[in-house]
Structures are given as structure tokens and as C-alpha cells.
Amino acid sequence: MFAQKLVAAILDKNSRVCVGLDPRLDLLPEIIKQNAINKYGETLEAAGEAIKNFNREVIAAVAPFVPVIKPQLAFYEQYGVPGLMAFDDAVRFAHEHGLLVLADAKRGDIDSTAQAYANAFIGQSKVFSSKTSVFNVDAVTINPFLGEDSLAPLIKTTQEFGNGIFVLVKTSNPGSKDLQDLVVDGETISERLAKMLQQHIQQEKLSVGEYSNVGAVVGATFPKQAAVLRKLLPNSFFLVPGVGAQGGSVQDIRVFFQRNGLGAIVNSSRGIVFPSEANGQKNYLEVIAQKAKGLRDEINTVVGV
Amino acid sequence: MFAQKLVAAILDKNSRVCVGLDPRLDLLPEIIKQNAINKYGETLEAAGEAIKNFNREVIAAVAPFVPVIKPQLAFYEQYGVPGLMAFDDAVRFAHEHGLLVLADAKRGDIDSTAQAYANAFIGQSKVFSSKTSVFNVDAVTINPFLGEDSLAPLIKTTQEFGNGIFVLVKTSNPGSKDLQDLVVDGETISERLAKMLQQHIQQEKLSVGEYSNVGAVVGATFPKQAAVLRKLLPNSFFLVPGVGAQGGSVQDIRVFFQRNGLGAIVNSSRGIVFPSEANGQKNYLEVIAQKAKGLRDEINTVVGV
User: Fold this and answer.
1) How many structural domains are present in chain A?
2) Complex ipTM over 0.90
3) Which residues of A touch B88 (CB under 8 A)?
4) Entry pTM
5) What is the mean pLDDT of chain B?
6) Domain that holds residue B205
7) Are B168 and B236 in contact (CB under 8 A)?
8) Partner of A49 for a Cys bridge, out of A36, A65, B11, B213, CB 3.0 to 4.6 A?
9) How far apart are CA B305 and CA B11, in angstroms?
């Protein structure tokens, strides 16, 4: 089960950090870009090749310090089919290095279509007479705007295949106020969504300290809302984006966790993968590894573990 | 500009129909599946090959009767990279046949990530020293759950590259009531979203009968809500899913259109591409073409054009 694997990996590495793999071609080391261009010219294929090779280096560098990576699909889709091949490669390579993989896809659609997304990421697709895993990640982020029936096939798939979902409940961006903070019958849309998820999770009859495969995305930029949501979703892991470049502070991160020091993973993308200190430096992988280790230690101090 | 191309294509073919290309491997003609299996075995590659070949036949069959097709990304992603190659092929093949292409992707994310999705679908990606179109569709569907700042890069991209977006305002599924129908300060979330979009569209200073590249998704299953939204978004095209299998009626479709007989395109996926009359029949492409023509004529009668 995803939630159990996540807890085990967190405890194993004593790390609550998720590294966001959001490749930015402009920021990749020159040598990696040049090798790819030499092989394929200035093409999407070369972009995919460069991203694949950089990701592999980053995954190997951070693997000792983090339990999980989170590739953001948009940054792969923008390089077309070669970009998605690089995504696929990152999933396999991370698994080979013992890491869990969350696909940050924020998919959401009506029932039959939601099932197709579930098949693509956390279930299996029927391919003629047999079934096969496709992108084969451990969990995927989900957008709940289409309502309960759009979540049902995904929740069912987490139960069937033991993988996870993280449903957007309160996102890290300023615009999350526009819909998610609106108040209906005395509660915000975020709170309402949390209760909707908890109704499903309750049916699992989990004990205190046991976690569901159904998690929530709650932005680091909104610790006050997180405190409320934390109580509404006692058996859910929170995926917490927004520290660093987006303005969320590690000092405010305690409230996303539970007393046991579990219940959340804190994502950092640019802050670990593209720190200014690594820019143009030969030892960039050492800098990246130190950034992952540093964030791990900083979070552990704040959480008190 | 997308909106102008759409109006021209609608008038040229006197058709307000969009064909949803949502491939279902189980329902493809046996001969197409067998040829693909003979070539690649029972693999994802064979699935992609079968879908590609079926789509090409369908596109050629419906092209005389419809202005636009709408591939649903989930049904391609569930076959992995080969599935996405089939999506890419459908876009090219449809363009060669003079059709506009809407990617039903329902993407939505924070600003920098939304920009990456915009690059992937309706803008261009920087690939080393140059810029290139990637999936190169004419418009893409967008999920607004992350709020105004998540829409901004997409709206900007529609202006820069002249392509379109259709923002989810009221979706066709029963669960659309869960969030979209909630009432805040006397108006539903859907109405609020419509007003948010209209604030952007107003800045274009369009005349009556001129259309923005910023459209809305409004489900055929909710004609009452559509009547309200129609007034709130006078310069937007509505993409209308949900007739047929989902329970929306063509008889109720008038209210989605404007007096000029424009302002909406009505999607049908299964009803045109996989009608029961075509199942197992040698003349399935004739049946598909007749279904497209039939829906065109039925809608035109209801709209009164």
C-alpha cells in the first residue's frame, strides 16, 4: 500500500522531503545540453535527452536524502513526446533507486475519463487481451473541480492497486483564494473538500497513525488553513508545495505534520534542483545533494524529530 | 485568430458539431486491431498504432460534416508514450484535413506551470536557441480551480499566438453540482467564474457577434444554467459536451447558442465514433459519417439555421 510504503521510506531516511523534478532546459548544465545537441541537433528529441540525463544525475544525488520525487507533467509535456519519454524514464530510474514517485498531473475529469487517467498513472490499462501498468507511478495529484463522481474512479483505483492520490484541497498560489477560500454555509470550499474526502477515508476504518492512500495537497504558504485541514483529515498525508520560491517558510511547517512527526511531505523543486549556488558550477550535483540534505535537516528540526 | 477560424469553419460546413476522439481499444474494428498486433504484438505500441489508424479513418469520414475534433488526452495517456504519439498524429492528420483541433486536457496549475501547459498546447516551447510549437492544437480545455493567476498565462498565450482556451465553467457530469453549483453572495461558482472570464474578455473591446479566443465549457445536461451563463459571456464560444451517452438532449440545445446561430459547438464522442449500428459492420465509416451528418442537421434544425 502506498501510504505504508511512504511511511516506511520516510522513517528509513528520516526525511520528509519531496524533490520536485521540474526540468527547465535553460538552467541545465551546458555540458548536458551540448551532448544532447551533438546527438540530435536543437530538437525536441535533444531536449528530452538532456532532461533525461540531468534527471538521472539529480535522482542519484538526492536518493540518499529523500523518500520521494515529484515530476511535474507540464514541464515534460512542453517538450512533446520526447519530453514524456523523459518523464517515463525518470519514473523507472527513480524506482530503481528505491524512490517513490508522485506524478504532479492535477488531472480531473468525468467518470469514464477519470478512469482512463487512473489507468494511465496508478492502475492498469487493458491492452488487447491483457492488462499493463503504463506510467506506473506511486501516486498522482488530482483536481477535484468536477466533484465527487470525478474522484470515485480514482479512489477505487487506489484501493484496487494500492497506489495513492493527492487531491488538491488548498493550493499554494495566491489565486487559490479565488475559489478555494470561498465560504459556503460557514465553511470554505477547501474545508468542504476535506470533509468530502474524509467521508471516503472513514470507510477504511483506520486507527490513529494509520494512513489512507487518499492524501491532500495543502500549500506551505497557508499554515493557518493547514491547521484546520489537518484536523479534518487525520488519516491523510499532506503533500506540501510552496516552500522557497513561492514564499512558504519552513519555520511554519510544523502545523502540516501530526504529533508522530508524520503526515506530510514537503516539496521543493527549484530550491533543490536549481539553486543559484549550483549555477555553472562543476560540483552542481554536490550542491544539489547538500540542498536536499539541508532541507531534510531543517524540516526535521522544526518538526522535532 | 482561433475564434475567427472557428466561425469561418462553422459557416463553411454549416455545422456546429465537434467530434470527440476518445479511442476505446475494445471497440475498434477487429481488422485494425489485428493488423496492429501482427506488427507489434499485444503491446502499447500496437494500441497506439491501432488508435492512430482508426482515428485517421474517422477524421477523413467526418471532415465534410464538422469543423472541429476534440481528442480527450486521458484516452491517449492511458496507452503511454505510444498513445501520445497517436494523439500527436491525430492533430496533424486533422489539420491536413482542414479541421480545427481542441485538446480536451483540462489542465490547470500555478503560474509557471500553467505557462508550461500553454507552451505545450497553444503556444511555443523554447528549445535551446529557438522556439517551436509542440502539440500545436488550436485550443485546449482548462480547469480554473487554482484561480485567476492560474488562468493568466493561458489567456496571455491565446493573445500572443492566436489560439484558444475553453475554461470549465459548468461541466456536464452530475458531480458538477458539488462545487460548481455552490452559491456564494447570491451567485453560483459557475456564474462567478463566468464573470471572472468576462472581465478579461471585456478588455478586448469586441462588438456584438465578435468572439474571444477565451471560451467556456458548459454541459449540455444543464440548459437552465446555460441560459444564465450565455448572458454573462456574450463574446465566448461554448464548448458543449454531454449530449447522448451522458443524457443531454439536442432538443434543449438552442439556449447554448446566440441569435446569430453561433456561439456554441456541441460535442459528441461515443454517439458518433462508436454507435451500436457500426459495431462489427464492414461499412462502419459510412455509419460514422452519417451520424456526424445527422447530428449536424438535427442541431441546425433546433438552432434554426
Assistant:
1) 1
2) yes
3) 80-81
4) 0.98
5) 97
6) 2-303
7) no
8) A36
9) 10
